[in-house]
């Protein structure tokens, strides 16, 4: 089964795929769908891309479409949340836009990505920029997003332990994303830009800026490898599971899914 419904991922899977300081040769997508006025998700699960055949985004869109075709009369609006290990490529952005525009019900769509996927290819940022223009919210994940994803799809009763450099790499990814998409975020005042460097993306090449922000983070591409995903940046082991009872009591009631 390509899409695993109502099934959590392991802690090892989470850290292997979502770590912002590692690169995987696959994409993991954790998703949830709920009616706007409800708290529990009607549909949730995860999917990996099917190499050479179908991206994870397309597999999940098909599953959501099938659900909505049967359940459209049940709600006036649906909320969809995606946590992606990599940002969507331009082709997947086109598919998301088609789904969003052709949906027979109102949808609020939120996409959160752990790592940028080939932002040096101008078409990929352009696809994401179009998502935002149409009201599909896209962002690179920060600490709170990784924590939320962990509690929703791994274990709400285990403490989320950040891997080394999560904060630094997340800020670099977010800053790069905002630069390429022509956005501004006052929270990211980390002196990566000169005072007058607030011009749109076309004023400077993406590759030049990427070299500045992610210097020494991404090794050169190996021409003999499949160019889908980059090699691992660092060999960092997943943090060990620890008991976190206080977090369980405080956070468990906020989990927006139901196990079956």
From TrEMBL:
Keywords: Hydrolase, Metal-binding, Zinc. It holds the Pfam family NAD1. One of its GO terms (cellular component) is cytoplasm. InterPro entries: APOBEC/CMP_deaminase_Zn-bd (IPR016192), APOBEC_Cyt_Deaminase (IPR050610), Cytidine_deaminase-like (IPR016193). The keyword Hydrolase applies. PROSITE patterns: CYT_DCMP_DEAMINASES_1. SUPFAM superfamilies: Cytidine deaminase-like (SSF53927). Coiled coil: none annotated. One of its GO terms (molecular function) is RNA binding. It comes from the Eukaryota. GO terms for biological process: cytidine to uridine editing. This is Single-stranded DNA cytosine deaminase-like. It comes from Monodelphis domestica (Gray short-tailed opossum).
